Amino acid sequence: AQSVTQPDIHITVSEGASLELRCNYSYGATPYLFWYVQSPGQGLQLLLKYFSGDTLVQGIKGFEAEFKRSQSSFNLRKPSVHWSDAAEYFCAVGPPWGNTPLVFGKGTRLSVIA
Amino acid sequence: DGGITQSPKYLFRKEGQNVTLSCEQNLNHDAMYWYRQDPGQGLRLIYYSQIVNDFQKGDIAEGYSVSREKKESFPLTVTSAQKNPTAFYLCASGREINTGELFFGEGSRLTVL
Question: Which of B72, B88, B67 is nearest to B2 (CA)?
C-alpha cells in the first residue's frame, strides 16, 4: 500500500535561514506528489505539485521541491525563511492512474525564531 | 468568490448525540472529501465522493455517515457510534479524484463533552 513518511515532527529555524522539509514515499510507481501548508486552525493550501517532467518544481511563497526517484523523496526547500512561514506542512501522494484519493503524511510543524 | 464553506466552525455536543457538519462548495468540483485531523496523526480520510449519489468509505469510516444528494454539498454526520469524535474535521473538493489540486474548507472543530 502507498505511504508517505515525514521524518521530522517539528523543526525550528531562524528567520532568514534556509529550510528543508523531508518527505519519503512508498509506491509501486512514480506517484503524483504534493506539498500543502496549514496555518493554525485553518484548512490546507497547495504549495506545489509534481506530476512529471522537470524534477525541480517551483511553488508559491518562494518554495520549491525536488523529486528524486532513486531516493523516493520529494523534499521541500526554501532559501530564506520568513516568520510568516511558521505553519504545518504536509506531503501527499496520489496514483497517476485510477480513482484513489491522496494519501497524506503526518505533517511537519515549522517554528520560526527571530 | 469561489470556495468551500464549512459550518459550524466550532461545535460542542454531549456524548451520545449525533452531529452533522456541513460542507458546501461552489467550485463545480466533482470530487469531495472528509478528513479528520488529530494532533500528530496528519489527515485521515473518512469518506469521499466522486460524483453525486455515490460515495466510498475511507480509512476511518466507522461511526460516520455521509450523503451526496447535490454536487455542491457533502454533509458529514458523526454518529453516537464514533468512539472518539472530538477532533478537527476538514472538508475538501477537487476537479478529479487524485490528479488535481484539493481545495480545503477552514475546518470544523467538534468537542464532545
Answer: B72
Q: What digits encode the pLDDT tens for the residues B12-61? A: 999 889 999 999 999 999 999 999 999 888 899 999 999 999 999 999 99
DSSP-assigned beta bridge partners for residue A85: none
CA of A70 vs chain B CAs: smallest distance (Å) = 23
Judged by CB atoms closer than 8 Å, whether chains meet at A90 and B98 is answered as no
E strand intervals along A10-100:
10-14, 19-21, 24-26, 32-38, 44-50, 56-58, 64-68, 73-78, 87-94
Candidates B50, B99, B104; nearest CB to A94: B99
- Cell numbers found for residue B97: 479524484
CB pairs A-B closer than 8 Å: 55
Predicted pLDDT at A30: 81
Closest chain A residue to the Cα of B105, Cα to Cα: A43
**Is residue B4 a contact partner of residue B24, using CB atoms and an 8 Å limit?**
yes
- Are residues B102 and A44, on separate chains, in Cβ contact within 8 Å? yes
Note the pLDDT tens digit of each residue in B78-111: 998 888 999 999 999 998 766 667 899 999 999 9
